[in-house]
Design brief:
This protein has three helices and four strands, in the order ββαααββ. Keywords: Membrane, Transmembrane, Transmembrane helix.
Length: about 90
């Protein structure tokens, strides 16, 4: 299943918490021209390094497929960041 929603929570150094919900599908639609350039760049990189573009695409698809349920936490000093993918 492709991720549908990314939730980012940030605790700022002053103790205030901010929560942002990012819907994945609209963001991908808006950024699709850049995504096309990134895919073309990836294909060129695969050809330069003599890798199979199909294998690289399959690997990227497997990483995206495994994202739902992932939590990423980072804390530095009094600032904390939590990103969860649903």
């Amino acid at each position: 299943m492709i991720p549908q929603l990314v939730t980012v929570r940030v605790r700022r150094s002053n103790g205030r918490r901010v929560r942002v919900y990012i819907p994945v599908v609209p963001v991908v639609l808006v950024l699709s021209p850049l995504l096309l350039l990134a895919v073309l760049g990836g294909v060129v990189a695969c050809l330069i390094f003599r890798m199979s573009p199909g294998g690289a695409l399959r690997g990227a698809g497997q990483v995206l497929w495994a994202l739902p349920g992932t939590r990423f936490e980072m804390e530095q000093g009094r600032t904390a960041l939590l990103a969860s993918v649903r």
